[in-house]
């Protein structure tokens, strides 16, 4: 059996470096713009009757899209590792708790 050097297939799938720089920037811009659009739409829906639920859904989706857009620039594994670094751990926990509990 031969031993393969380098990244495994899973790492290549999870790492955005397998994409070209132009593709990464393009999808970052698309996801970030979608995140901003959802956040603005959610804010606009806040003023409708029973709009608080729609606001919560669209604003959360917008924030998650903007957060996930950075995965295209640095890769999802690197993004998660950086989020859980000791100097960012408290902010990450607070953000995740507030995002998914409320």
TrEMBL record:
Q: Sorted alphabetically, which Pfam families does this protein's record hold?
A: Got1
Kindly provide the name given to this protein in its UniProt entry: Vesicle transport protein
| Membrane topology per record | Multi-pass membrane protein
The entry's cellular-component GO terms read:
cytoplasm; endomembrane system; membrane
The protein's role, per its UniProt record: May be involved in fusion of retrograde transport vesicles derived from an endocytic compartment with the Golgi complex.
Subcellular location, principal: membrane
- Ribonucleoprotein as a keyword of this entry, yes or no, is no
Protein species of origin: Acipenser ruthenus (Sterlet sturgeon)
Gene Ontology biological-process entries: protein transport; vesicle-mediated transport
Write the record's keywords in alphabetical order, separated by commas: Membrane, Protein transport, Transmembrane, Transmembrane helix, Transport
> Of which family is this protein a member?
Belongs to the SFT2 family.
For the keyword Electron transport, the answer is no
Question: So which domain of life are we looking at?
Answer: Eukaryota
Give me the segments passing through the membrane. 27-48, 54-75
Q: Where in the cell is it found?
A: Membrane
